[in-house]
From TrEMBL:
Organism phylogeny: Eukaryota, Viridiplantae, Streptophyta, Embryophyta, Tracheophyta
Functional summary from the UniProt entry: Component of the MICOS complex, a large protein complex of the mitochondrial inner membrane that plays crucial roles in the maintenance of crista junctions, inner membrane architecture, and formation of contact sites to the outer membrane.
Protein name according to UniProt: MICOS complex subunit MIC10
Location in the cell: Mitochondrion inner membrane
Membrane topology annotation: Single-pass membrane protein
Keywords: Membrane, Mitochondrion, Mitochondrion inner membrane, Transmembrane, Transmembrane helix
InterPro entries: Mic10 (IPR007512)
Length: 96
């Protein structure tokens, strides 16, 4: 007899999300580090500034991977909205 597996949608499959996030983080870490190393070799002479450009590129890669992974686990976009400005609040600010 064949066993029937319950298929879980990718929205609820944490293993798939973790695998995707680890893969994304490793790829962005490596590519951004290589980009920082190339930029450091191209633009800087001092070893300290070259290492700083590698560190900066690595930070960009890890930060962007963290942002994408947090969106994948939250399943929603961040609630960043500009404050609402109304006519009364503008006129109150001008009067003060």
């Amino acid at each position: 007899m064949a066993e029937k597996k319950d298929s879980v949608s990718t929205d609820y499959d944490l293993n798939a999300k973790w695998d995707a996030c680890i893969d994304l983080t490793v790829r962005r870490f490596v590519y951004s580090s290589l980009g920082g190393a190339f930029a450091g070799l191209l633009f800087f002479r001092s070893p300290v500034t070259r290492w700083a450009s590698i560190a900066f590129g690595t930070g960009l890669g890890i930060g962007s991977a963290y942002t994408d992974c947090s969106r994948a686990f939250d399943s929603s976009s961040p609630n960043v909205a500009a404050p609402k400005i109304t006519e009364t609040s503008v006129s109150q600010a001008v009067d003060e």
